[in-house]
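Why this split exists: single-chain examples teach little about how molecules sit against one another. For that reason, every record in the complexes split bundles all components of an assembly together and asks for one structure covering all of them. Below is a record exactly as it appears in the raw files.
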Amino acid sequence: MSESPIAVEARNAVKAFGQGATAVKALDDVSVKIKKGEFFTLLGPSGCGKTTLLRLIAGFETPTSGQILLDGADITQLPPNKRPVNTVFQSYALFPHLTVAQNIAFGLEMQGRPKAEIKKTVARMLALVKLEPMADRKTSQLSGGQQQRVALARALAPAPKVLLLDEPLSALDLKLRKEMQIELKRLQMETGITFVFVTHDQEEALTMSDRIAVMSAGHIQQVGAPREIYTRPANRFVASFIGETNFLTGKSDGEAVQLDIGSKIAIKAPPGPVSLAIRPEQVRVVAANDPGALPATVGATVYFGTDTHLHLVMKDGSTLVARMQSPASGSGDLAKGTNVGVTFPDSALQLLGD
Amino acid sequence: MANPSFEVARLPGFRFIAMAVFVVLYLPIITLVVYSFNAGQSVALWEGFSLTWYHSAWQNEAVKGATFRSLIIAASASGIATTVATMAALGTTRRKAFKGQTFIYVMINQPLMVPEIVTAVALLIFFASIKVATGYNGLIYLIIAHAAFCIPFAYLPIRARLEGMDLTLETAAADLYASHWLTFRRVTLPLMLPGIIAGAMLAFVISLDDVVITEFVKSGGQDTLPTYMLGQMRRAVTPEVNAISSVLLALTVVMLTAFFLLTRKKD
């Protein structure tokens, strides 16, 4: 990995809520380094600790133990108003008694910037989020997507070192969400500000991020580029949370792995039972008599439009899902019970850790 | 049934009952206002339209003094009560639920529940000993007494306003470099202001209207408008009382209308 400077770092951050025996650890010894200028996503199911980590960086919470560093300086005990970090809230939290322009100017005014500079920056921000005609409206007169843009402009106006985004797109409908994803990416490119984005939507994470941290149960499970996370999931949780996955079991003799569904593949693993993952699109369905193919029967077919999923019953009774492009002709599916063959490249198999 | 939905407004006799209730509520008040324009001496026998009694009330030094006193007391008491109520509302809503919260609510709203006459007697005895000890007989006793029973009236609308406010707004202000004080001044205070104004107006009207506690606490020559009128009723009743009442009524209606306009939900 390149040696770009680190914008934000969490060092052994622990955050426990409650006291004594009933305490719940929302974050359990989390360490992560977020590089300058990158679009970094914290991805995980609700309750995994991703929002807690964001709130620790923003300063809304103080860690039970551990440190938060910004540009190498310890900011763990700094209150939120002293941190050069701004947040886009899930509910937007726009000030209802202020106009769009006044909302955007708020942070700059609190910093005591000169009036002329504030005016210029607000105009620039309004242009950036394409809301110039709305400058003097009250925020309650705006649509959801427009409010979202105001929230972004307000948080970007003071030129923070890091912009924190707490599931900002979750309240928007699908079409608007797609537009805002592109918009966010554009804003990040144009401003060059480090974005830390929290989401539970894996597709959102994959399309927007430079790097993703997959979180679960207060731990970071894996950090990596979207492609890396998708093709090389570190463990069972990551593999199942990102996209669809088939899990295979087998036995390793130290040199190769004998899969329970039949074939033997050359993957180095410590001797003993192993578990592996393979994406449905890597599974190929061929004729039953194809040389080297594993025997299988079609259990069910599920039509998704572009794709069709074939549920294949293997010889050990386990089910493997294969994704294939639906035929353009619209011709029918393979009938249930048809005998077919299954192949996949050995390289598509990913050995999973614990 | 063709229409299964139940509407009270469609029940037989609804119109009649509604009209009857409105008549009982408003006929006496309308009568009072009408007779304030009576040309004669009677509050029951109509002798023609005139503004005599308004004029006479206006010329009456005792009425002027009582009005002045009423306004001073109401303004000071509602000011004090609103300040205390604002702080109490912030203290009871801007934190997690705590042990004894209900007890605090009851303590703050105590004047609503304790019979007024009890408070009046208690204040009479309490202030009497202070008056004897200090020899001071100013309006301050009435102001303190009024402020005390006005607090819950100011507190309730302010608390309602604060409870409807999104706490994330204050977090957002802090995130945007506002100190605690600036967050309060630029975000919390402007958002709770309609509640504060509503509370202050309610307190003002309640204070303006008070008889029982005022009657017990006031020293000689400290009649407020309501206690002056009560005194007049003991002698010959003239439409002058009607005229004063009508003016008080008009003032109250204006203030309460403003109160409802301020507290009603936007959009």
